[in-house]
Specification:
The complex is a heterodimer of chains A (about 375) and B (about 500). Chain A has about 375 residues and is α+β, with helices and mostly antiparallel strands. Chain A has helices at about 5-15, 130-135, 275-280, 320-330, 350-365, and strands at about 50-55, 70, 75-80, 85-90, 100-105, 110-115, 120-125, 130, 150-160, 165, 170, 180-185, 190-195, 200-210, 215-220, 225-230, 235-240, 245-250, 255-260, 310, 320. The chains are: A alpha+beta (about 375), B mainly beta (about 500).
Chain lengths: ~375, ~500
């Protein structure tokens, strides 16, 4: 356990003790219950689970499992300056657009999807690392291009094939009408998902099983009809409580291990412009600063070094030299380029050699 | 490490922010006061939406997923926050149905959230609508406003080419719609949708880029702001009516009548211009509002501008005041600063007035760029009427400017009028074009108004009116010097 996770666990333990007192002010957020903090590794607990809706990682799910999703495609790169396509293509990334993550502490996490209306995968030993999506609060950035959160822990169940739940002898994947996600109820520490298949309302609850890396999935049907279950997993037991109620116990085993966001050393290649380009990408600088002279939230970085520019609050242009660029990254509100907003860009806290590399990269951006 | 020490600024930045705030607060806290409200320590104050319930409890939706609530108190640092609900992906739209019962728009869904057992915490989350696509792009933000009949209008924002899309998307995918800077690769991006109380979701209006602000006013008009960018030469305010197209072409691929295979980005500008509804206001990006948040109708109790509109600037420490003018049955009008600085945070995004109308609560956030443009603030009317332009109305041959109180000093020498146009196209933003000085005649037939006659008044132009050196009876300077009137229609 990392020191960071230790503190989180202690705070969560404190939170559990005081969970009846939900009123709060001027106290660390983690001490009053399940609030999300700057921590990029949010965690629930068995007594106080956490449900997070975010882009969810796709740990290798098949097209058959994701049969109700549509397929994206490569797309031509585009130049807004010219209003035309340019060389190269944008390539889609992996991720689930509308799934839900639930965490019960280190014992169980699972991903339930609102498009496929089913449990997609389950893991233990952690939940999600949100660094790529929420950003590193200490360094200032909040996103990068590959921003899908990363799994933390051991994947032990991954769905395959059609929806295993059958209604009147047929997989609900083959329903005549589209499956419909209706929502969920929270009863104490339980989440009960609701879906509609061919006009029938079905409830689904996922719990930890009695053994390590096992699951108990409870299905029930409102009204008439008969539920069945069909998949090709070797170690699962179907308990048919009645025509309208099933409990499936699944004994999983290690499929893959995940360690969260890759802790990439941006300076692996040394202090140079190439490393600077990696810093530029990791800090998502392109969200506001174009490289081709086109306008955006912030000034374009094309051909700025060595030129004079006007800044807000002064009629005398200043030289954009090394010191100006370094200050603009670490303390951007000290001098704001004329025509751009004050108090908008956050100060970026980088390592000394990351600043230097980024500076070297910006200096390469010439016409 | 303590969570509270997680977010430390470079000391220099902190000191300069502190100085700026102290100075501006000291000299501008006359008619309205700006305060920053403390959220629980260690919570990222990325405020996606703010609303009141009928008992005066403030609900604050945070974009990572939590919803907090508190009864406002006099001390902005001592709100007693309670946890109400969690589990929303980028919740940027919220309406309160009743205490403990709200509707949230999030990335993938319009969700009804209710505390059914009365313990103060939500326990039922129903999917009201998910009839739009989700591409996986971070930029696809949604907002809602009531339709006045138990349903909602949903502003479904486009994706940005600064982020990717997924291999597996929700809903139909269009390779043509995926092209461009801000794009519409999946259904209904760039549209206003209507969710009616019987549960049906239908397309209402198209042609938006990032209408990060939708509002229904007290006369049942629907208003959308949008962000300066591609197909937006400057920040617009649209009066939205069913079936209209509002100028950003990408959304057109989802129009059921759109010809198969036609690429809206390849349409000639003339064709787009002929199709589009013009904004009621073109709000100059640099001078007034870089990136509009939610429009807000000013109630009674907030000073002399009741019935006018405020538009937070998501990209600067400003709020724009809009003075609408109905000419030949169509809205157009003028704008100026309501607040510029005065301790206001950047990232202006959402707002809600207290029931007595005296206080505006504002939520601040910008996706992924963080401090110093996030937090919760409130602006309170202090009761001292400002010396300000109250309204600007178009006359047949110029403008009638009404003041909030009598003043003097408006003359041929102190008033200046220029006019210009904008041309929206694929480029990000656009310059003022065809700028010209106008020949004017200025008079003050009574101390509470100014008559500005313009020799050559033309439609489809923006008129910049500058008034310098005016003083009220007790010597106060005019609150703003510059005003922009968007003239779409001349008086018949």
């Amino acid at each position: 356990m990392s020191p960071h996770m230790k503190i989180q666990s202690i705070l969560l333990a404190v939170a559990t003790i005081f969970s009846s007192a939900l009123t709060l002010h001027a106290e660390p957020a983690a001490s009053i219950g399940p609030l999300l903090t700057y921590s990029n590794r949010p965690l629930g607990s068995p007594g106080q689970p956490l449900l997070l809706r975010t882009f969810m990682p796709d740990p290798g799910l098949s097209d058959e499992v994701l049969s109700h999703h549509h397929r994206g495609s490569n797309s031509s790169k585009y130049s807004p300056k010219k209003g035309k396509d340019r060389a190269g293509e944008y390539v889609p990334i992996d991720g689930l657009p509308a799934a839900i993550g639930v965490n019960y502490g280190s014992a169980l996490s699972y991903c339930w999807d609102t498009v496929e209306c089913r449990l997609l995968y389950a893991w233990d030993g952690g939940f999600l690392d949100m660094t790529s999506y929420w950003g590193d609060p200490e360094r200032g950035n909040r996103q990068s291009y590959g921003y899908v959160p990363h799994l933390v822990g051991t994947l032990f169940y991954r769905a395959s094939g059609k929806h295993p739940l059958q209604l009147n002898g047929k997989s609900i994947s083959d329903s005549q009408k589209p499956l419909k996600f209706l929502g969920y109820k929270k009863i104490g520490k339980r989440f009960i998902f609701m879906l509609e298949a061919d006009g029938s309302k079905i409830f689904c609850e996922v719990k930890a099983g009695t053994t390590s890396q096992s699951l108990a999935v409870h299905y029930s049907l409102e009204g008439k009809g008969s539920l069945g279950y069909q998949d090709d997993l070797p170690r699962r037991v179907i308990k048919k409580v009645s025509d309208s109620e099933l409990i499936i116990t699944i004994q999983g085993s290690k499929i893959a291990e995940y360690k969260g966001a890759p802790n990439k050393d941006l300076l692996e290649g040394g202090v140079n412009a190439a490393s600077g380009e990696l810093v530029f990408a990791a800090m998502a600088c392109a969200t506001c600063h174009s490289l081709d002279g086109s306008k955006s939230h912030g000034p374009s970085l094309l051909d700025i070094h060595g030129k004079k520019r006007k800044i807000n609050g002064s009629d005398i242009p200043v030289m954009v030299d090394d010191a100006y660029i370094l200050e603009s990254i670490s303390n951007p509100n000290a001098k704001v380029a004329n025509g751009y907003p004050e108090n908008y860009m956050p100060p970026y806290k980088l390592k000394k050699d990351e600043y230097q590399s980024l500076l070297l990269y910006i200096k390469t951006l010439k016409k | 490490m303590l969570i509270s020490s997680y977010f430390t600024y470079p000391a220099k930045a902190l000191i300069s922010v502190f100085l700026v705030k102290t100075l501006t607060l000291a000299c501008a806290a006359d008619s309205w006061k700006v305060e920053t409200i403390a959220l629980p320590e260690g919570i990222p104050p990325e405020v996606g939406a703010v609303q009141f319930d009928s008992e005066g409890t403030l609900y604050v939706a945070l974009r990572r997923g939590d919803i907090l609530m508190a009864k406002p108190v006099a001390d902005a640092k001592k709100f007693q926050w309670k946890y109400f609900a969690t589990g929303f992906h980028n919740s940027c739209g919220m309406e309160v149905i009743a205490p403990g019962h709200i509707v949230i728009s999030q990335m993938a869904e319009l969700t009804e959230v209710k505390d059914t057992d009365g313990d103060g915490v939500a326990d039922r989350y129903l999917n009201l609508s998910d009839k739009w696509g989700v591409s996986g792009n971070y930029h696809e933000t949604n907002e809602i406003c009531p339709d006045g009949d138990g349903g909602f209008y949903i502003a479904v924002g486009t994706a940005s080419f600064n982020g990717p899309t997924f291999h597996h998307v929700r809903g139909d995918y269009s390779k043509i719609g995926r092209r461009g800077r801000n794009f519409s690769g999946v259904q209904w991006k760039g549209w206003v949708m209507h969710y009616s109380k019987d549960g049906k979701t239908t397309p209402f209006a198209s042609g938006f880029r990032m209408h990060n602000g939708i509002m229904r006013d007290s006369k049942s008009n629907i208003w959308c702001t949008d962000n300066q960018g591609d197909w937006r030469a400057t920040t617009p305010l649209y009066h939205v009516r069913k079936g209209n197209f509002h100028g950003h072409p990408s959304s057109l691929v989802w129009d059921p009548k759109w010809p198969e295979g036609k690429d809206p980005l390849k349409m000639p500008l003339k064709e787009i211009d002929a199709m589009r509804t013009r904004p009621a206001l073109l709000i100059p990006h640099y001078q007034m509002n870089r990136s509009a948040g939610e429009p807000l109708e000013i109630p009674e109790g907030f000073g002399p501008f009741a019935g006018q509109m405020l538009i937070p600037d998501n990209n600067s420490t400003r709020i724009t005041r809009v003075m609408l003018d109905k000419v030949n049955g169509e809205y157009q009008g003028s704008c100026t600063h309501f607040i510029n600085g005065q301790g206001l945070l950047s990232g202006g995004h959402r707002g809600v007035f207290s029931a007595d109308g005296k206080t505006l609560y504002t939520g601040h956030t910008v996706r992924g760029w963080g401090k110093p443009a996030e937090g919760l603030q409130r602006i309170t009317w202090l009761g001292k009427k400002p010396f300000s332009v109250k309204t600007i109305q178009l006359k047949k041959d110029g403008f009638h400017v009404a003041m909030t109180q009598p003043g003097s000093g408006a003359s041929q020498e102190t008033v200046k009028v220029r006019s210009f146009t904008y041309q929206s196209n694929w480029k990000y933003g656009g310059n003022k074009l065809d700028m010209r000085d106008e020949k004017i005649t200025v008079s003050q037939p009574d101390p509470s108004s100014i008559e500005i006659d313009v020799a050559k008044l033309e439609s489809i132009r923006v008129y910049e009116i500058t008034i310098k050196g005016m003083k009220s009876k007790d010597g106060a300077a005019l609150r703003n010097e510059v005003y922009y009137y968007t003239l779409n229609n001349l008086q018949k």
